[in-house]
Amino acid sequence: KWKEKSCLDPAYLNRPVRIINQDGGRTLYEHRGCAHHVVVGAGPNSQITAANGNWRIKSTDLGYRILNVTSSRALYAHQDGNWQDRFGSDWILEGAYWNITQNPDGSYRIVNTESQRCLYAHPAGTWEEGVGAETHASTHGCWVFIFSVVVDEP
């Protein structure tokens, strides 16, 4: 079952999580495109498979790592890029640590610790278009986390 929980609660870290943009409802995913090129995008939650759209958030001394559950690739945003440029997922360490801070409305801002680029998904974008990490704050950079947890029901 899926349940919205605070991602900073240690009890929920390292569990499968859906990362959903608050503004447009787009769910972050990873998949292999042409010639095995790895693509990160955001699309309708109902159309994103568990293999592509489930992530784990791991706490480290350098920040949080956001890892795809299936591939174990980490989300990154290099310093010398913006928007979709130099953004993606890979098995690298450079640019793959994030600060996650809660906003007053309960959503979260995800900012790369090295590049200070903020994860965003524009509501008008589709799939790989309009998702990445930008160098300035935006209204499209607020996310909610839906964790897979066992829920006791009466």
Average predicted local confidence, pLDDT: 78
Q: Ends: how far apart?
A: 15 Å
Question: How many strand segments?
Answer: 13
SS-based class: mainly beta
Helix-strand pattern: EEEEHEEEEEEEEE
Main pleated-sheet profile: 5 strands, antiparallel
Oligomer: single chain
The parts where pLDDT drops under 50 for at least 5 residues are 149-154
How many H/I helices? 1
- What sort of overall outline do the alpha carbons produce when their principal axes are compared? globular
Radius of gyration using CA atoms only: 14 Å
Strand content: 35-45%
The helix content is under 10%
Q: Would you write up a description of this structure?
A:
This protein is mostly beta strands and 154 residues long. It is built from one helix and 13 strands. It has one helix at 50-53, and strands spanning 2-4, 17-21, 26-32, 38-44, 55-60, 63-68, 74-77, 87-90, 98-102, 108-112, 118-121, 131-134, 142-148. Strands 1, 2, 9, 10 and 13 form a five-stranded antiparallel sheet that branches. The radius of gyration is 14 Å and the shape is globular. The protein starts with a strand and ends in a 6-residue tail after the last strand. The relative contact order is 0.25.
